[in-house]
Automatic annotation (TrEMBL):
Coiled-coil intervals: none
Family indicated by similarity: Belongs to the annexin family.
InterPro entries attached to this UniProt entry: Annexin, Annexin_repeat, Annexin_repeat_CS, Annexin_sf, ANX4
Protein name stated in the entry: Annexin
Keyword Acetylation in annotation: yes
One Pfam family this sequence matches: Annexin
Membrane-topology descriptor: Peripheral membrane protein
Lineage top rank: taxon: Eukaryota
Compartmental location: Zymogen granule membrane
Keywords, sorted A to Z: Acetylation, Annexin, Calcium, Calcium/phospholipid-binding, Cytoplasmic vesicle, Membrane, Phosphoprotein, Repeat
Keyword Cytoplasm recorded: no
Matching PANTHER family: ANNEXIN (PTHR10502), ANNEXIN A4 (PTHR10502:SF28)
GO CC entries: nucleus; plasma membrane; zymogen granule membrane
Amino acid sequence: MAAIGNRGTVTEAANFNPDADAQKLRESMKGAGTNEAAITEILAHRTIAQRQRIKIAYKQTVGKDLADDLSSELSGNFRSVVLGLLMLAPVYDAYELRNAMKGAGTEEACLIDILASRSNEEVKVINDVYKKEYEKKLEDAVTGDTSGMFQRVLVSLLTAGRDESTNVGEAQAIQDAKEIYEAGEARWGTDEVKFLTVLCVRNRNHLLRVFQEYQKISGRDIEESIKREMSGCLEDVFLAIVKCIRNKPAFFAERLYKSMKGLGTTDSVLIRIMVARAEIDMLDIKAQFLKMYGKTLHSFIKVRHRRKETVTPFRQQKLCNTSAGV
């Protein structure tokens, strides 16, 4: 029942009693109104594995599905967070990807956030879960909702074929940097396939060396060149890949900041990252957020949501403040 990562703010609850938690959740939904604070207190302080035990206990003692009961009792963003917390990690990712492609329009940012940041093994499991849950291959869903080079990058990521060794071939790194430069800055137009081949296939250590060599050859950072040479979703996905290779917690910190800055709040992005990373690397995301923006993630969420009265106060900060340093 341990957490799925070792840098999360949600850790295994001591003296865990799934039967007691199931009864408390049942009590929170009895009578007029719903005790959202009680639901938050339990679910935001249990690991994903512990929540699965609670779901089983609830069905055994109440004879109903916990997710179904909570879904019928809750609404808005609070409902979205609670239902997300009850899912296994790959099930949640598959669910978010499905929602991003369901109906008219596609939330490309969701596809990018998930596929650019997950390991080979995580992507393989997401593919399997998606096929099981929705009776359709994830690749088919993606190709049906996207197009062009953006589609090809996503399909490459879905193959889960990135080299995950730590080997760095010096000659190959120099060659890769040269080919990317010649495919972009050094020519009229851009050969995006060269960027795909290097950025979607090479291992992290190798790519970090490629980025260093690229700076020497071009006089520019690879991110700057991507912004100059590309646009739209293709620019976004290549930048996400580079940022995740360099510093994944910093990538998520930036995504959280951008989801909350300005007049509005992109709740879907905020919820997705808080739920998905709470048990994995939220401690590091918090540290990066403070370093990059001079404010704690906890305080930033509180201020932004105080300004937006339409947001149901699940208090996503519960998922980021269960340890010191908030």
